[in-house]
Amino acid sequence: MELKPKNYSVLFTLFFAVLIGIQGYQLYNTYQLKQRDIFATVKSKLNKSPKIDSLFDDDLMSKDIARDYYIKLVKNQITAQQLKGLYHANAHKTSGKLTRYVDSLFQPLGMDVILKKEILGIYFRNFNKQIADGPITVYTTQGNFRRPVELSSSEWITEKTETQKIEESIQSKEILYTFLVHRKSSFEVTNLHWILFKELTSLLLSTLFILAAFLWLFYRTIQNLKKQQKQITVLHDVVDNVSHELKTPIATLKIAAKTLRKSTDENIITVIERQVNRLEHTLAPLTEDLKPSDHPPVTTMELQAIFDDFKLTNPTIAFETSPLPEGKLCLGLSDATTLFQNLMNNAVKYGAKWLKVHFEQKKNKLSIYVQDNGDGMEECELPYIFDKFYRIQKNNIHDTKGLGIGLFLVKKIVDRYQGQLTVISTLGVGTTFKIQLPLLAIPS
């Protein structure tokens, strides 16, 4: 079963969506893998470095001092908020030093890393009574955390026995203070996305190139299919038109041949000659070799005669010409006749009610404008109108008969004389052909 162009587009869209999904999945997996590698590098580097706590013992709150503050907290000698303030003050002292130390580890690797350690909660006695909740910052580098990654977590158990006198007695008792502290260290690579982007740039560009190439190949394939389909349609139409044009002279020649069998008549011979000429005229464009004309350049009088013949055969058309050029055109008479007759007859054939031929001479160049108010053409048709056998279709039916050879001949003539041919057309408004040709030059 032959697929329609719409079905091809649907299938391509599905395949392209699958391709995007595959490429996107590969990019995502590579992104995740690179991210894990970066995190593993940071963890390894931090774990191999000396304990941060021991680097700044003079500024950080020592474990013994911290335990004494916990006891004061239990005795209500300080508040939990005051304890947090003490930790914060010590963390602030070490922030600058810690930042410089961490930068020295990771900046040579192109990473911006920030680090912090927090207390999540402090518990007393059987570890079921929380005396301070977190987070309480023990130390931190400078920077804002958005998506911290856990480096490690631990539990610290500390205890101390104190002797306490019993009121109104010389006796004393020993009290055991036991605390459980939940702690967590975290880090964040603040330039993580930039690092990943740099590492994935080549993969991203190759993915975009593959997708763009896939789109371009599909576009070129569709364009070629459309062009081939148009060429096939044009060739079928040419065959139909040629068959139609040949029916009348062939039928006439058959009748003439039967008449000649009965008697010789000069009139019958004339009819045969006329029909043979008609056949030659019909087939001539199909076998046109477009060799340069050996005739001298067309004169102003010969050019005027071409326009006079057109006005004579098209009396209902409002025809206007500007003054003809003073110098001789490079075109031979035969080429000039073919060029102007094709352009003017096409205008009439496609609905023009008025036609204007205008000349503009500048130095050694002559610009010729052939303007009409006919049916006009859609912009998408303009790249093809000079192709051999191409004819504009409406609903797959040609409005006029012809072989689609006229504009092809015009373009070949202009190119042979090193000229330029452009066209401007608006559907329902009309068409203007602009031809630029050299003056006083004969093609080699």
UniProtKB/TrEMBL annotation:
EC number: 2.7.13.3
Keyword Cell membrane included in the entry's annotation: yes
Bilayer-spanning residue ranges: 200-219
Reactions that this protein is recorded to catalyse: ATP + protein L-histidine = ADP + protein N-phospho-L-histidine
InterPro entries: BphY/WalK/GraS-like (IPR050351), HATPase_C_sf (IPR036890), HATPase_dom (IPR003594), His_kinase_dom (IPR005467), HisK_dim/P_dom (IPR003661), HisK_dim/P_sf (IPR036097), Sig_transdc_His_kin-like_C (IPR004358)
Keyword Transmembrane helix appears in the UniProt entry: yes
Positions of the Histidine kinase domain: 241-441
CDD domains xrefs: HATPase, HisKA
Highest rank taxon of the organism: Bacteria
Main location: membrane
Subcellular location: Cell membrane
An example molecular function term from Gene Ontology annotations: kinase activity
Designated name of the protein: histidine kinase
Organism from which the protein derives: Sphingobacterium zeae
